[in-house]
Specification:
The chain is of the alpha/beta class. The protein has 12 helices and 5 strands. It has a 5-stranded mixed beta sheet, with helices on both faces. The structure holds zinc ion. Zinc ion binds near residues 159, 160 and 161.
């Protein structure tokens, strides 16, 4: 407390001295100085995706742009965003370019992974990134109602949910949840050790789970299947690498 008072006293003394030397600053000058002090050194992005911008995008544009965003993420070069401006600019509507289904894993921050901000992407998350009826409804809302151009199913390596499905873990509501992942594990053509101790098998199960989710989306959502058939959207898969931060696109 004493130090603060002392510094303030020195500051006031210096200000008075400067005022004496240069003449008092006008109100205009003071306002100008205030603006300069608040001006950030980096240009912050305050705009959000508009309907016009969304409509101009093709599914392939979105894939490329997400891949570019992932490169910026890996290079620690994320876009600086003015969140309060983006909040204001997105109130009247949203026109996200994609819907991404990810695992709940805390090490997969989806928006950051693709360098995306407010209004850019829909994100649905569930342990093991499978698509049940509610997730399908959310995806249909994203594409058929809100105009998104891409459905991306993104798994990740070392996935705990997939490992639990591999080991047939039984616990509370986790038991029925794992039932949605287990068919993908069973589909893996592998003759060796089929336990979570075998990383090779777990990663094969991971890939199988992403592919199985995609085929379930096509099978259980005639709306999305038709949109894909017409070329209005693409449904694609990827696996996020926890070691490198890189998204590996399947196919
Ligand atoms: Zn996971």
């Amino acid at each position: 407390m004493k130090t603060t008072i002392k510094i303030s006293a020195i500051a006031i003394a210096l200000m008075s001295f400067t005022g004496c030397m240069q003449g008092q600053k006008s109100d205009k000058d003071v306002a100008k100085l205030d603006v300069m002090a608040e001006e950030p050194t980096t240009v912050l992005v305050g705009e959000v995706l508009s309907q016009k911008q969304q409509e101009a995008l093709s599914p392939d544009d979105v894939i490329k742009s997400l891949a570019d965003g992932n490169t910026r993420f890996i290079n620690n070069n994320l876009t600086a965003r003015n969140h309060s401006k983006q909040v204001k600019n997105s109130v009247s509507g949203q026109f996200p370019e994609a819907v991404i289904l990810s695992c709940v894993d805390s090490r997969v921050p989806v928006e950051d992974v693709f360098d995306r901000g407010i209004g850019d992407i829909f994100v649905a998350r569930v342990a093991g990134n499978f698509a049940n009826e509610d997730i399908l409804g959310s995806m249909e809302f994203a594409c058929a109602v809100s105009g998104s151009k891409l459905v991306l199913v993104m798994g990740h390596n070392h996935c705990g949910a997939v490992r639990a499905a591999v080991d047939d873990v039984k616990l509370g509501n986790i038991t029925p949840m794992l039932q949605k992942i287990k068919p993908a594990v069973a589909m893996v053509d592998y003759k060796g050790d089929r336990t979570s101790g075998n990383l090779e098998f777990v990663e094969m199960a991971n890939h199988s789970n992403v592919k199985n989710t995609i085929s379930n989306i096509r099978k259980n959502s005639p709306i999305l299947k038709e949109m894909e058939y017409k070329g209005e959207i693409k449904i694609v898969g990827a696996v996020y690498n926890l070691e490198t931060g890189k998204v590996d696109w399947l196919n």
